[in-house]
Write a structure and sequence with these properties.
By secondary structure, the protein is mainly alpha-helical. The protein contains six helices and two strands. It has helices spanning 36-51, 103-111, 120-129, 145-149, 152-168, 172-181, and strands at 115-118, 187-189. A two-stranded antiparallel ribbon has the order 1-2. Helix 2 (103-111) runs parallel beside helix 6. The protein is flat and about 90 Å long. The two termini are 70 Å apart.
Length: 192
């Protein structure tokens, strides 16, 4: 049986305002350059008219019209003292004041080089540094049989709990110093 469907031949190129039908040739832009010499001349004329509004650049005169002493409407500038009102001596270090470390700072140190947590013996030392421990609060470090059964992310979460505990008790500085002094070999890493 023959089908009665006839394939419509694709249209040559529909106009930009006509809808595109599958099979139509894609329209292409047509660029026609007209009056290029006169258009360039008009541009040069417009540019010259714009530039005519401005004076030519000239060097600054050697003598300044305003006296060196300054504007008479304002008082003379007084030098600032070397020691400020707050008692800062000139030898005091300058720059931003050191801010106390945060849990995020400690976690940056703990996660450096794909670290998870200290090895069990060193983690136990860190746990002993935490103040006000009682009734398994915070959660003890994952050592012994729980070390092997616990995934790395859970170990990292337990370490974060210890860091948050130290921060809440005002003891984050020594804990962070302890973490920073640990050699890389005393850290458990992802994939170990």
């Amino acid at each position: 049986m023959a089908t009665d469907k006839k394939k419509n031949p694709p249209r040559a190129s529909p106009g930009l305002d006509e809808p595109y039908i599958r099979g139509d040739a894609l329209p292409s832009p047509v660029a026609v350059e007209m009056n290029s010499d006169s258009a360039w001349a008009m541009w040069k004329e417009a540019h010259a008219a714009h530039e005519a509004k401005f004076a030519d650049t000239a060097p600054m005169p050697v003598s300044s019209p305003v006296p060196i002493s300054g504007d008479p409407r304002y008082a003379a500038t007084q030098p600032a003292p070397l020691q400020g009102e707050h008692g800062a001596s000139p030898d005091a270090p300058r720059g931003p004041k050191a801010k106390p470390p945060t849990v995020d700072d400690a976690m940056l140190e703990a996660r450096k080089n794909n670290r998870v947590c200290p090895i069990p013996a060193r983690w136990q030392e860190l746990y002993q540094m935490l103040p006000d421990r009682k009734n398994n609060q915070p959660t003890p470090p994952l050592i012994g049989p729980s070390w092997l059964a616990t995934p790395s992310l859970s170990k990292r979460m337990c370490l974060r709990e210890h860091l948050e505990w130290a921060d809440a008790k005002g003891n984050l500085d020594p804990v962070l110093a302890f973490l920073k002094q640990l050699p890389e070999g005393e850290w458990h890493h992802m994939g170990d």
